[in-house]
Write a structure and sequence with these properties.
The radius of gyration is 26 Å and the shape is globular. The protein has an eight-stranded mixed β-sheet with strand order 3-2-4-1-5-6-7-8, with helices on both faces. The chain has helices at residues 3-17, 24-40, 45-61, 70-86, 113-126, 143-154, 166-180, 197-210, 225-237, 255-264, 285-292, 298-308, 311-323, 328-340, 344-349, 356-360, 367-377, 381-385, 392-402, 406-427; strands spanning 101-107, 131-136, 158-159, 184-189, 214-220, 242-246, 268-272, 280-282. The protein has three domains: 3-86, Four Helix Bundle (Hemerythrin (Met), subunit A) (Up-down Bundle), CATH 1.20.120.140; 101-285, 3-Layer(aba) Sandwich (Rossmann fold); 298-441, 434 Repressor (Amino-terminal Domain) (Orthogonal Bundle), CATH 1.10.260. The chain is α/β, with parallel strands linked by helices. It binds guanosine-5'-triphosphate and magnesium ion (MG). Magnesium ion (MG) binds next to helix 5.
Length: 443
């Protein structure tokens, strides 16, 4: 996500961070480089220009504080402005005072509207809302079935009248929701080109009829400058209340996405991060800004860790860390938890200070976790409890049993002892919840 932008800024930022003195001259030079990086990553020209102007103005007007390195101070300004650019508006859904809340999805063909409707429905259901999905795309042949299939998958009803007038379908669906006391209605509309006047009129007519409480513009995060043009057209035709950027799991350049909040004047509320139904995240400008600026995403990491880390287990682990009685069984347990957190390279990418180049040099093959587990599984309980007894012949046996070679067994045992050493240090440190997984340091 935003890798290209992040990569482009990486070198510039490293220069800036190292600056011992901030002068008008190096502010101008740094700004020029940042502007170039933004444009290369597809940020809209006007957006980049305004952004740089704001950064320059603040940088020139800031007196350098004693306690912070001048370069760091500049980066902080950049971070603040980037957060501002990504949007500071309210990202929560505005609910209707009188049921139901109506959410209208609009966007170009293939942007991810139907998928997003289902994902959002799923998210709101988990939060305890009752939801009705509405199939108002009567043009694409398989559109209704697509929504029905997704609805079935997440156990949410889908309202459909086949291929009738979309305005009437939406209106009827809202009426039905009202009668059934359904809390939220999500309207999946047909994809339309912003230059297609008739289709734009249709969605305006739907909007006029049902008066949605939220009108979300769904934009494909992978598209470049085009997204900016269509965002403009949609925001002129409809009273947008927010944007959803989809496909942010791909290696999008990120620039267009950065520009969209500024162009539409409404906040990005959600981002799509996978094709799956749980792949919709609330958009957090600060987290994204930090990620773009290579500051890592510790919050995501902690949240991910907390999701899979059983609180009781974590407590036990901490006890073991204190007592230094961490066995190979615990090691295996940790491996499992780490595996549940997702692909290693994705996790490492969230670590502060990790950039793409560093990731490339690391061995992040998830299969290693599986192999390691297989090796530990081939050990006897006594060996797991006291790895000191694992001598040469035991190593041979373990290697055979797990289908790995002796070098790998040796390496694992070595790693274990190294980890134990590291944990002695960590045991004395107080880490944020979830980050006390000692495996975070293993690669
Ligand atoms: N990787 C990834 N794929 C996504 C995401 N959102 C949508 N997709 C995929 O993008 C494709 C198009 O998604 P749809 O939801 O059908 O898009 P749409 O806007 O409804 O398309 P039309 O109805 O034809 O205009 C599908 O293959 C989705 O699975 C996402 O966040 N990540
Ligand atoms: Mg669709």
């Amino acid at each position: 996500m935003f890798e290209q932008l992040s990569d482009k800024l990486d070198a510039v930022l490293r220069n800036i961070r190292g600056l011992g003195k901030i002068s008008e001259k190096n502010i101008k030079e740094s700004s020029r480089q940042i502007r170039r990086a933004l444009l290369d990553a597809d940020v809209h020209v006007d957006v980049a220009k305004d952004f740089i102007k704001r950064v320059e103005k603040r940088a020139l007007g800031t007196t350098v504080t004693q306690s912070v390195k001048p370069g760091e101070q500049f980066v902080k300004i950049l971070q603040d402005e980037l957060i501002g650019l990504l949007g500071t508006g309210d990202t929560s859904i505005s609910y209707a005072k009188q049921l139901p809340t109506v959410i209208l999805m609009a966007g170009l063909q293939g942007a991810g509207k139907t998928t997003t409707c289902a994902k959002l429905a799923h998210k709101l259901t988990i939060e305890g809302q009752s939801v009705l999905l509405v199939a108002a795309d009567i043009y694409r042949p398989a559109a209704i079935d697509q929504l029905k299939t997704l609805g079935k998958q997440i156990d949410i009803p889908v309202y459909s009248e086949g291929h009738k007038d979309p305005v009437a379908i939406c209106d009827n669906a809202v009426k039905e929701a009202k009668a059934n006391k359904t809390q939220v209605v999500i309207l999946d509309t047909a994809g339309r080109l912003h230059i297609d006047g008739e289709m734009m009129q249709e969605i305006e007519a739907i909007s006029d009829k049902v008066k949605p409480h939220e009108t979300l513009f769904v934009a494909d995060g992978m598209t470049g400058q085009d997204a900016v043009n269509s965002a403009k057209a949609f925001s002129e035709a409809l009273a947008l209340s927010g944007t959803v950027l989809t496909k942010m799991d791909g290696d999008a350049r990120g620039g267009a996405a950065v520009s969209i909040a500024e162009i539409t004047g409404v906040p990005v509320k959600f981002i799509g991060i996978s094709e799956k139904m749980d792949g919709l995240d609330v958009f957090d400008p600060k987290r994204i800004a930090d990620r773009i600026l290579g500051m890592g995403d510790v919050v995501s990491l902690v949240e991910k860790a907390e999701k899979v880390m059983d609180a009781k287990k974590a407590e036990k682990l901490e006890e073991k860390l204190q007592k230094q009685s961490f066995t190979l069984d615990d090691f295996k347990d940790q491996l499992n938890q780490l595996r549940n957190m997702g692909p290693l390279n994705q996790l490492m990418g969230m670590m502060p200070g990790m950039n793409k180049k560093m990731l490339k040099g690391m061995n992040l093959d998830d299969r290693h976790l599986m192999w390691t587990e297989a090796i530990i599984n081939s050990m006897t309980p006594a060996e797991r409890n006291n790895p000191n007894i694992i001598d040469g012949s035991r190593r041979m046996r373990i290697a055979k049993g797990s289908g790995r070679n002796v070098q790998e067994v040796n390496q694992l045992i070595k790693q274990y002892f190294a980890l134990q050493k590291m944990m002695k240090k960590m045991g004395k440190m107080k880490l944020p919840a979830g980050l006390n997984n000692p495996m975070m340091g293993i690669h």
